[in-house]
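User: Teach me something about this protein's shape.
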Amino acid sequence: MKKISIIWVVVLIFGVVNVAGAAGNDRFASTIDTFNSFPALKKFFNSAYGYAVFPTIGKAGFVIGGSYGTGQVYRGGQVMGRSKVIAGSIGFQLGGKAFSEIIFFQDKRAYDEFTSGNFEFDATAQAIAITAGVEAKAGTAGTSAGASSGPKTGVQAETNYVKGMATFVHAKGGLMYEFSIGGQKFIFEPY
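Assistant: First, the predicted structure itself:
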C-alpha cells in the first residue's frame, strides 16, 4: 500500500509539472505579470532586493505527498540563476493540485541565504494565497492561513516580510484535501 502511494504521488507530480511546463520560457514572464497584477504585491515588486518565481509547482498526495517545481531567481530585473523546489509531507492527504509561487527577498541577506545553495523554510515561514478562496496549512514549512477575493476587488490581507522573505501562492487548478506535516527545500544553481 505504501509503495503504491509513493508511485502514485510521483506520477501525478511529474505529470502536472511536465504538462504545465511545456509552455516554454514565456511562462516566467506570464507568471510575474500575474503576480504583479495583484495590488497587495505592488509594494514587494517596488522594494524587494530580488525574488524567486516558480510558474508551476505540482503537488499530489495519498497519505504520503510531495511536490516539485522549477523556477528562476531574479535580482534587479535580471535572471541570476535557476531554482528547484522539492517538498514532502505525510498525513491525511488525497488529491493533486498545481500552483505558482513567488518568494520576495527583502534585502541582500535574505537573497544570499536563499541562493547559498540549499535552503529550507523553517517553522516560521508562511505562504499567503492570493486568489479567490481560503487556505490554511501547518507544517515544518510553517503555519499559514489566507483568504482573498482576488485582484479585481482589491481586497487583500496586509502582508509583511518574515525573516526577510514574503511568499505568495496562486492556485492554478486541482483539488486536494490535506492535513499533513511537511516542508519545502530549495536548490539554487547560478547561471
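Now, about its shape. The longest helix spans residues 2-21. Residues 2-190 form one domain. If you'd like, I can walk through any region in more detail.
User: That's plenty for now, thanks!
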